[in-house]
Amino acid sequence: MTVEELFTKALHNRAFWDELQKDPAKAFKEVGAKIDDRQLASLKKLDYRALEAVAEAFAGDRFIT
Questions:
Q1: Which pLDDT value is given to residue 26?
Q2: What values do phi and psi take at 36, rounded to 5?
Q3: pLDDT band at 63; cut points 50, 70, 90
Q4: Which of 3, 18, 44, 51 is most exposed by smallest CB count within 10 Å?
Q5: How is the chain split among helix, strand and coil, in percent rounded to 5?
Q6: Range of the domain at 19
Q7: Mean pLDDT, the chain, as a whole number?
């Protein structure tokens, strides 16, 4: 999965977004995508609330449908 595909899926699939925050490896597995250890480590360090706030500031209520 490319970073663009990751962002698009996260923005348009609430279940994926929620699982990504809890267990990124499981989120990827559930959509049939592979993730390496470096990618997994980076996703575990993200501040998901901050990302959601930025997305909502730019997209309003359209964020995460």
A1: 95
A2: -95, 175
A3: low
A4: 3
A5: 75, 0, 25
A6: 1-29
A7: 88
* pLDDT given at position 54: 85
CA distance 55 to 50: 9
0.85 exceeded by pTM: no
Q: What's the number of domains the chain is made of?
A: 1
In a domain, 7, yes or no: yes
Q: Is the pLDDT reported for residue 8 higher than 60? A: yes
Contacts 24+ apart (CB under 8 A), 52-61: 55/11, 59/11
Residue 10 placed within a domain: yes
Degrees to nearest 5, angle at CA 26 with 22 and 31 = 120
Q: What span, in angstroms and rounded, lies between the C-alpha atoms of 53 and 1? A: 24
